[in-house]
Design goal:
This protein has 1 helix and 14 strands. With 158 residues, the chain is mainly beta.
């Protein structure tokens, strides 16, 4: 909220900047890499995040630089059976960074990995978040519980 208020008031120059979250649970298939559909924006300084179809952040023309990228994805199992999985940052459709999880036992219902990175990006580069959950049984989803699944970025250097 403080970042959003500062950006909209022009108090800081770390733009473009955005943050979006998942507003309702997203069903996914077991052991299948899936793009997280962050469909609700908290803020978007340059209209650079697509929250309706591609669910990606695209660097606008003239906004090359180093960007701080962050995401949190709550993975949920309907049967308390999370076995393993990951969340991943993709740059221009290719894996850039992954944060895997493999719980001590497979009786967990929720796991919430976080991923952060500083990336050199140029105009037209795009960033997306993907996830995967493998279960012993039940159905997996990305959870919107208390806005626990979110994605954001902001430029830190030109």
């Amino acid at each position: 909220k403080i970042i959003a208020d500062s950006i909209t008031s022009g108090a800081i120059a770390n733009t473009p900047a955005f943050e979006a979250y998942l507003s309702s649970n997203q069903s996914i298939s077991d052991a299948t890499e899936t793009k997280v559909a962050f469909n609700t924006e908290r803020f978007d300084s340059d209209s650079a995040y697509d929250n309706s179809s591609n669910y990606r952040f695209t660097i606008p023309s003239g906004k090359n630089g180093k960007y701080f990228i962050y995401s949190n994805v709550q993975v949920t199992s309907s049967a308390n059976s999370l076995a393993s999985g990951y969340i991943m940052i993709k740059k221009n459709g290719s894996e850039y960074m992954r944060n895997a999880f493999n719980p001590e036992n497979s009786s967990m219902q929720n796991f919430t990995p976080t991923i952060v990175s500083v990336m050199d990006l140029v105009a037209t580069d795009y960033i997306e978040i993907f996830g995967l959950a493998s279960l012993a049984s039940g159905s997996p989803s990305f959870s919107a519980n208390v806005k626990s699944t979110f994605f954001g970025a902001y430029r830190i250097l030109t």
